[in-house]
Amino acid sequence: MPVIPAAGTLPWRRRADRLEVALVHRPKYDDWAWAKGKLDQGEDWAVAAARETHEETALEVRLGRPLPCSTYTVLGKDGEPAAKEVRYWAARVTGGTGQLANEIDEVRWLDVVAAHDLLDYARDRDQLRALVRADAAGALDTWPLALVRHAKAVPRGQWKDPDDQRRPLDRVGRGRADAIVPLLAAYGVRRLVSSPSVRCADTIAPYAAWLGQPLRLREGLSEEGYEADPTRAPHHLSRLLRRGTPAVLCSHGPVLPGLLEQLVGLVDHGSDDGPGAAKQLAEAAEEKMVKGEVLVAHLVGRGADARVVAVERHLP
Question: Where is each Nudix hydrolase domain found (predicted)?
């Protein structure tokens, strides 16, 4: 059976200490559900979730922790059955005009009990229950820390300059650097830290230009700096953990395993996604991540209180 990929969010907020979520009404079906829609060709799930939410609600959101997905049978364009797979995220509202424009005639903010009663599909309550559990555990209001392995570069054997730090991305790598822009934007990443090696800096440079924020270069995140002093890279990660603001750190295959192991030590094993998060971090460390991969760790707290409650891996 063919699969139709789609993505959406549960925008949430707190009013008078009461948790509320936003539902949308589709007049075509006369139903209440979460904002969602199909992926564009080649689009990342997370990018589609943020885009579709904006198109359907006019709300700009920052993706938070992932929520349970839904899979159900629909009729495809050819009239044959297809499996529709919808992936969801909790989402913080960061802006928006409030002017509806795409197949939606109403967006309604409701407390979780009223939302549970208004939803038309039982499958949509799975995401709501997960969001409520995360809130009760103090693990809903998260911030993202993205680790990136630089995109594909010109092979070492083809690089004649003795300074390997000057080795640039190749055509595929430059394409991946451009594709990372909407992905980091979906998570609201604001602070940008990278190895000064050209292949790392140029992986994040398109996003820095789009965001209009400086790219902070740290020699301790380079292969050469890590070899000279392995303590400097964990120090840079610890500084980001102390800040507790949405951030990205770009480095190299030999450097990243130590940083991932550092995050493994922060996993909240009591959270719903804790065991899975630890497993994904360990696997990524063993693989040294894939070139061009974006691994997003969702954290609550900062500094000594920081803990990882969920992890996602976005492969090129």
Answer: 2-132
Which residues on neighbouring strands pair with residue 74, listed in sequence order? 82
**What angle in degrees, to the nearest 10, is found between the helix axes of 45-57 and 171-186?**
50
Contact 151, 203 (CB under 8 A): yes
- Tally Cβ neighbours within 10 Å of residue 171: 9
pLDDT in tens, 254-282: 999 999 999 999 999 888 888 999 999 99
Instruction: Name residue 104's amino acid.
Output: I
What is the three-class DSSP state of 24? strand
3-class SS string, 247-279: EEEEECCCCHHHHHHHHHCCECCCCCCHHHHHH
What 3 state SS string does 273-308 have?
A: CHHHHHHHHHHHHHHCCCCCCEEEEEEECCHHHCEE
Residues 201 and 241 in one domain: yes
Q: What is the span of the domain harbouring residue 101?
A: 3-136
Residues 147 and 131 in one domain: no
**Which residue, of 136, 151, 167, is where some domain finishes?**
136
Of 110, 136, 162, the residue at which a domain comes to its end is 136
111 and 171 in a single domain? The answer is no
**Does 224 lie in the same domain as 125?**
no
Counted domains in the chain: 2
Query: pLDDT tens digits for 44-67?
Result: 999 999 999 999 999 999 999 999
3-class SS of residue 44: coil
Task: Kindly report the average pLDDT of the chain as a whole number.
Answer: 95
> Are 33 and 180 members of one domain?
no
Half-sphere exposure of 306 (CA within 13 A, CB side): 23
Amino acid making up residue 99: Q
Adjacent-strand bridge partners of 10:
90
132 and 69 inside one domain: yes
| pLDDT above 90 for 68 | yes
